[in-house]
């Protein structure tokens, strides 16, 4: 990257001098000056990121692509050149060695691999000296930016570094990754351009002008395979958007290099046919068929035969695009004040390269005895500085291994979070943790992904999260030494200690400025001594000093000296530090009302908190609570990871909790806040749901106002993890009523969002609370909801057992409405098992009971369900009668979703009777209703059924249009099974 005027303009815009920018970024003034003047051809990516973080912008805002000092091309004949022209690489063997390294930038190449490639495994006696000489000459001949040596020694291997070099193989990978991302986002035209740019970098086979040992070796094969995969992906996209000529141009050179590759040939045939050249397509098929038969003795495969059929019948279809997801980018931002740790960062670099050379899964653990040592900051700094190594994404999870709540994140929860980030739909996640782990490892296999497992409790929490392939890198932080991960999984331990005195001084200087620290050197010494090199303490001290610009550093140091040590020995495994003194000193400077908020925040372990929840916890108004939280943030006692959301470091929380006694009333207020706000939100999400009795909020509880369904959804999205924590707090407090009520209030949101495992966990605790209350009504609800949760995860035996228990409780209570709900749930359960006779029995009983209750919307739902099961059993007259009554009733009540469902059922019944015109009319009206109310899930199903009706009626053109509409919805909704089925039907349609 080159920098210059954009950097200078941004610095001037912010009113910073070059010295101030240097202090902020940790670079020298000379380095900043050189960057602004473009005095170097290439800026290191890490330096640019540091500058960008210091200015609060993205690196792209400051950097423009620039031609590298040296250009290295291996995608074809080997070519190395600079501004003056080609760079001679010396003897042929020396050229081969450089090519071997250049094709694998950043990857250590062992001497054994070099020997095998250069001498076919039979080197001369002096081979070590020869290789050493070659490397020395190449280091002098090819030099990157700032005279950087481009070949480094890593143990018994050599690695080509990319600094200052422009490598076509890296450019190729970058364009392919961008193309895949754009395709996953639906921008197929831009994606095609990226793939085309990547493929245009190829000038022939890899190492085209080098000896056979390189041209046919494993490195050449691996790089060539990436070209083929990119060409296939590009062709699929180009054919979808109708760009047949470009697809053909990209594929032609490859079919010559891959004469037996049926995937390439089938796509080129389709491209030729789509461009109107059917003769070329048929000639291509004849050629590969002859080669397959004559040279391999096999016939063309299914894919090639299908392409041939399509060309012959002039029925060229676009091949199915594989389901693509956006690569996850979960890394939190790195700290802008990160300082020092160069040795540890280098150790992490070495661990990655060494493990890559060994071919094993990389596990790195940055560990230290004390919390607040900066383990997370180190991990994130390394991760951001090396983000280019992981084009398939970065996953991050805070495992909360040492959270004051004592509630570390279970591995299964972390696995489900990773699966969601990797694009796996919740309904496709299996129920058992073992199956979830297997799916996770299969999903991440062969991807170049970085996993940051932060704050792990022990090895047992880490091992289930380790991928099974060597393409991934895992970075773990923990206060535990993780002995099992070290011994069984070959982890490389990076021990993290306190900052050295120069590093701590540099951090304080960057925060406070050179002028201020230079003016009071003695005070700086005393402040550093109080912090004992602990980054957390240094951050708190710096924040306090930044707030008191009018106060001398000496006065601040005097205040800190007079503060007692209240946190020493907090944990027997923690080394002594003066963090307690720093914290108590900071608290002494707080206004009384802010100190009270600080102390009560430590009384409950919440992952984060917003102003309304903080108001409930502290008994203040939201405005007053927000003001107090901002005051605590200013002195670094809390962080604000996103606007309006605040988080407290676990050691700071422990200190806050240690200052005063229990805060049961405060926790009680917080639980009440979540119960009543969640209940109100659920009523907005599903007003037809039978409410529960939760009473009016107590005078101390002020629920957060939610205006409409959108506001309720947004609130649940934001507060989801806090709601889970609130239920755990209710369990710890022994509040059984709030425990099950929170499970109930989150139910609709969990169903809509597909958070099936969280729903199951909440209702497991909810059922335990119901048993403790020994309330048969609550037990009936809890068993029913838990049963439905099990069924949603395909745990049918457990689900049916809970539903039967629920029905038994409702019959014992003589609660007609609850009995009806349980029968309706059992009907749905048997439908999932395709057992429609018992499903109908329960639906009929639910209908009878709903009629006794007199709720017309419930009656309408039951009528429709009864009609559906009659239809599945072939009782078409009864089915039509019930669904028609359901339609009339739902229209009368104005329940639009029920109206759409009834119309869909009537369409299905008419279809079964062979009345395609009536069926299509019903489906079209159902689709109109679903579109009006924004129910895209049901709309997709009705479109699918309408397409089937039209196809059977012979209207294949209209069926194709309708099915393509359904297909788009299925793809957006990630309903892969429905998508696969519908694509198969589309392929069977005649023109």
Automatic annotation (TrEMBL):
Keyword Repeat present in the record's keywords: the answer is no
Classification via Pfam families: BTAD, HTH_3, TPR_12, Trans_reg_C
Query: Which InterPro entries does the entry link to?
Result: AfsR-DnrI-RedD_regulator, BTAD, Cro/C1-type_HTH, Lambda_DNA-bd_dom_sf, OmpR/PhoB-type_DNA-bd, P-loop_NTPase, Sig_transdc_resp-reg_C-effctor, TPR-like_helical_dom_sf
Which intervals hold domain OmpR/PhoB-type? 62-162
Q: Which GO terms describe its biological process?
A: phosphorelay signal transduction system; regulation of DNA-templated transcription
Residue numbers of the DNA-binding region are 62-162
DNA-binding as a keyword?
A: yes
Print the keywords alphabetically. DNA-binding, Transcription, Transcription regulation
Q: HTH cro/C1-type domain location, by residue?
A: 7-62
As one GO molecular function, the record gives: DNA binding
Enumerate the Gene3D superfamilies for this protein: lambda repressor-like DNA-binding domains, P-loop containing nucleotide triphosphate hydrolases, Tetratricopeptide repeat domain, Winged helix-like DNA-binding domain superfamily/Winged helix DNA-binding domain
The similarity annotation says: Belongs to the AfsR/DnrI/RedD regulatory family.
State the protein's name.
Tetratricopeptide repeat protein
Q: Which organism is it from?
A: Lentzea alba
Source lineage: Bacteria, Bacillati, Actinomycetota, Actinomycetes, Pseudonocardiales
């Amino acid at each position: 990257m080159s920098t210059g005027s954009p950097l200078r303009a941004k610095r001037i815009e912010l009113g910073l001098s070059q010295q101030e920018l240097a202090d902020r970024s940790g670079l020298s003034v000379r380095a900043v000056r050189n960057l602004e003047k473009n005095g170097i051809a290439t800026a290191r990516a890490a330096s640019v990121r540091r500058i960008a973080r210091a200015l609060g912008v993205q690196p792209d805002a400051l950097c423009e692509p620039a031609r590298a000092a040296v250009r290295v091309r291996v995608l074809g004949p080997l070519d190395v050149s600079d501004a003056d022209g080609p760079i001679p690489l010396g003897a042929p063997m020396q050229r081969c060695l450089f090519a071997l390294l250049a094709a694998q930038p950043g990857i250590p190449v062992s001497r054994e691999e070099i020997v095998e490639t250069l001498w076919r495994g039979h080197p001369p006696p002096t081979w070590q000296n020869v290789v050493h000489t070659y490397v020395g000459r190449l280091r002098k001949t090819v030099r990157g930016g700032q005279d950087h040596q481009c070949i480094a020694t890593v143990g018994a291997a050599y690695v080509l570094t990319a600094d200052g070099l422009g490598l076509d193989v890296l450019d190729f990978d970058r364009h392919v990754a961008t193309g895949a991302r754009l395709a996953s986002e639906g921008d197929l035209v831009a994606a095609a351009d990226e793939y085309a740019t990547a493929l245009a970098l190829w000038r022939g086979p890899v190492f085209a002008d080098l000896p056979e040992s390189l041209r046919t070796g494993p490195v050449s094969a691996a790089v060539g395979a990436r070209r083929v995969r990119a060409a296939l992906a590009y062709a699929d996209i180009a054919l979808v958007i109708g760009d047949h000529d470009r697809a053909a141009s990209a594929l032609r050179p490859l079919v010559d290099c891959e004469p037996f590759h049926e995937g390439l040939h089938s796509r080129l045939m389709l491209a030729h046919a789509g461009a109107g050249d059917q003769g070329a397509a048929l000639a291509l098929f004849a050629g590969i068929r002859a080669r397959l038969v004559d040279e391999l003795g096999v016939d063309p495969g299914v894919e090639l035969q299908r392409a041939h059929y399509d060309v012959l019948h002039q029925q060229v279809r676009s091949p199915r695009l594989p389901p693509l997801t956006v690569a996850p980018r979960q890394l939190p931002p790195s700290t802008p004040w990160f300082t020092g740790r160069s040795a540890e960062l280098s150790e992490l670099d070495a661990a990655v390269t060494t493990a890559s050379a060994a071919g094993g899964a990389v596990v790195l653990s940055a560990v230290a005895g004390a919390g607040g040592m900066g383990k997370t900051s180190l991990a994130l700094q390394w991760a951001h500085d090396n983000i280019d190594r992981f084009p398939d994404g970065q996953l991050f999870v805070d495992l909360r291994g040492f959270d004051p709540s004592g509630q570390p994140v279970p591995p299964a929860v972390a696995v489900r979070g990773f699966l969601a980030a990797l694009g796996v739909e919740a309904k496709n996640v299996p129920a058992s943790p073992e199956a979830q782990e297997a799916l996770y490892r299969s999903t991440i296999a062969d991807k170049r992904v970085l996993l940051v497992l932060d704050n792990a409790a022990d090895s047992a929490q880490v091992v289930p999260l380790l991928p099974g392939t060597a393409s991934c890198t895992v970075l773990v932080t923990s206060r535990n030494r993780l002995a099992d991960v070290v011994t069984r999984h070959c982890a490389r331990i990076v021990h993290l200690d306190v900052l050295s005195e120069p590093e701590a001084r540099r951090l304080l200087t960057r925060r406070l400025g050179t002028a201020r620290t230079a003016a009071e050197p003695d005070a700086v010494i005393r402040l550093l001594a109080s912090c004992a090199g602990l980054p957390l303490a240094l951050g708190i001290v710096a924040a306090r000093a930044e707030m008191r610009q009018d106060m001398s550093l000496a006065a601040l140091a005097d205040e800190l000296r007079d503060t007692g040590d209240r946190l020493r020995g907090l944990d027997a495994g923690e080394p002594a530090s003066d963090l307690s003194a720093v914290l108590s000193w900071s608290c002494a400077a707080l206004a009384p009302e802010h100190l009270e908020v600080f102390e009560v925040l430590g009384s409950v372990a919440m992952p984060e908190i917003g102003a309304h929840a903080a108001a409930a916890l502290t008994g203040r108004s939201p405005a007053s609570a927000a003001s107090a939280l901002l005051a605590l943030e200013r002195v670094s006692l809390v962080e604000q990871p996103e606007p309006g959301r605040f988080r407290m470091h676990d050691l700071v929380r422990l200190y806050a909790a240690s200052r005063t006694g229990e805060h049961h009333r405060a926790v009680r207020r917080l639980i009440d806040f979540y119960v009543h706000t969640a209940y109100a939100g659920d009523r907005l999400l599903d007003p037809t749901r039978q409410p529960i009795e939760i009473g009016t909020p107590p005078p101390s509880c002020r629920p957060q106002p939610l205006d409409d369904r959108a506001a309720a959804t947004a609130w649940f999205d934001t507060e989801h993890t806090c709601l889970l924590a609130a239920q755990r707090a209710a369990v710890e407090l022994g509040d059984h009523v709030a425990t099950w009520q929170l499970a109930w209030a989150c139910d609709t949101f969990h169903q809509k969002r597909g958070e099936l495992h969280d729903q199951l966990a909440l209702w497991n605790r909810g059922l335990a609370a119901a048993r403790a209350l020994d309330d048969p009504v609550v037990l009936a609800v809890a068993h029913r909801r838990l049963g439905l949760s099990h069924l949603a995860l395909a745990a049918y035996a457990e689900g049916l057992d809970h539903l039967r228990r629920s029905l038994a409780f409702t019959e014992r209570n003589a609660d007609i409405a609850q009995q009806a709900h349980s029968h309706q749930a059992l009907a749905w359960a048997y439908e999932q098992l395709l057992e429609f006779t018992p499903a109908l029995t329960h639906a009929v009983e639910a209908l009878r009971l709903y009629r006794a209750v007199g709720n017309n919307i419930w009656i309408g739902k039951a009528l429709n369900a009864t009609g559906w099961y009659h239809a599945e059993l072939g009782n078409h007259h009864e089915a039509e009668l019930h669904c028609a009554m359901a339609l009339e009733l739902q229209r009368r009540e104005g329940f639009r979703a029920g109206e759409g469902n009834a119309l869909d059922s009537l369409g299905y019944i008419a279809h079964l009777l062979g009345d395609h015109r009536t069926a299509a009319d019903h489906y079209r009206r159902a689709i109109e209703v679903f579109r009006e109310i924004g129910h895209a899930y049901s709309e997709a199903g009705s479109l699918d059924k309408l397409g089937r009706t039209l196809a059977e009626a012979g209207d294949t053109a209209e069926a194709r249009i309708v099915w393509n509409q359904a297909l788009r919805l299925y793809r957006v909704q990630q309903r892969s099974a429905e998508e696969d089925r519908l694509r198969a039907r589309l392929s069977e349609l005649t023109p």
